[in-house]
Each structure stands twice: as structure tokens, then as C-alpha cells.
């Protein structure tokens, strides 16, 4: 079952169980996916849906930080709950140690030796960790290893 089908099934289940919060979150995700499909005039594959899910989580994490800074715990809890629901659809997340190993391997593969090679490393690295690691963490680790 692909991600779009899984989202549809979970939406139906949320309707049946009257879980309004989960239902609204899934509808929001499906709306974003549908808008992208309309823009591209074709159905999205799982990788493209993963990109959308990752982007949605990143936006919510940014919002979460801002809400916490502003002391808006009510909004922070709401956004954190949305992150939990969206995270269910992402593949198993890599640990920091696993990401470090992948970063080291990629640096060796690309022959990078300085921060000037960072773009080359990131281009080779991101497809390997797509949807399974936070881009900010990956970026920090690459910078750390290229110093």
C-alpha cells in the first residue's frame, strides 16, 4: 500500500472513530498533496509524497520553536501533536550515530576535504537519508566533519 492509499484509509478510520484532530491533520496533508498533483497534472509517487511530509514536519518544527519562545504552550502542544501524526507516515528515523556513519562514507566517496566541497557532499548525501533524517542535523554533521 502506498502512502496516499494509507492516508486515505487512515482518514476513513479517523472519521469512523470520530478522532477530529487526526482527521483534520490528515485532511491538511492530503490537501497539500492534492494541490501538488494539480500543479504537476499527475499523481505523485511515494518519494514525492515523502518530500511533502518532510516539508510539513519541518514547517511545524519551526512553528513549534517559535510558539515555545513566545510562551504559547497551547499552540505548541497542538503543533507537537500534528508532528506526531505526520511522523507516523515517515520511514523509521535514523539515529544520530547512523547519520554520522552515512556522512563519513559520503565524504570519503566524494573525496571532499573542505567546506568548499559541502554542496557536493550534500547533493550525494540527501538522497541516502531522504525522509529518514532531519536536514538540519545532516547539515551540521557535514560541516563538523569538513572542518
TrEMBL record:
<dbReference type="InterPro" id="IPR019004">
    <property type="entry name" value="YqeY/Aim41"/>
</dbReference>
<dbReference type="Pfam" id="PF09424">
    <property type="entry name" value="YqeY"/>
</dbReference>
<dbReference type="InterPro" id="IPR042184">
    <property type="entry name" value="YqeY/Aim41_N"/>
</dbReference>
<dbReference type="InterPro" id="IPR003789">
    <property type="entry name" value="Asn/Gln_tRNA_amidoTrase-B-like"/>
</dbReference>
<dbReference type="GO" id="GO:0016884">
    <property type="term" value="F:carbon-nitrogen ligase activity, with glutamine as amido-N-donor"/>
</dbReference>
<protein>
    <submittedName>
        <fullName>GatB/YqeY domain-containing protein</fullName>
    </submittedName>
</protein>
<dbReference type="InterPro" id="IPR023168">
    <property type="entry name" value="GatB_Yqey_C_2"/>
</dbReference>
Amino acid at each position: 500500500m502506498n502512502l496516499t492509499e494509507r492516508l486515505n484509509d487512515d482518514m476513513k478510520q479517523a472519521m469512523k472513530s470520530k478522532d477530529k484532530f487526526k482527521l483534520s491533520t490528515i485532511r491538511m496533508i492530503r490537501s497539500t498533496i492534492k494541490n501538488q498533483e494539480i500543479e504537476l497534472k499527475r499523481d505523485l509517487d511515494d518519494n514525492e509524497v515523502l518530500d511533502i511530509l518532510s516539508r510539513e514536519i519541518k514547517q511545524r518544527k519551526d512553528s513549534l520553536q517559535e510558539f515555545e519562545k513566545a510562551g504559547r504552550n497551547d499552540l505548541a502542544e497542538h503543533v507537537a501533536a500534528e508532528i506526531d501524526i505526520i511522523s507516523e507516515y515517515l520511514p523509521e528515523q535514523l539515529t544520530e550515530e547512523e547519520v554520522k556513519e552515512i556522512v563519513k562514507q559520503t565524504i570519503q566517496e566524494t573525496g571532499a576535504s573542505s567546506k568548499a566541497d559541502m554542496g557536493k557532499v550534500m547533493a550525494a548525501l540527501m538522497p541516502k537519508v531522504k525522509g529518514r533524517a532531519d536536514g538540519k542535523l545532516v547539515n551540521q554533521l557535514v560541516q563538523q566533519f569538513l572542518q
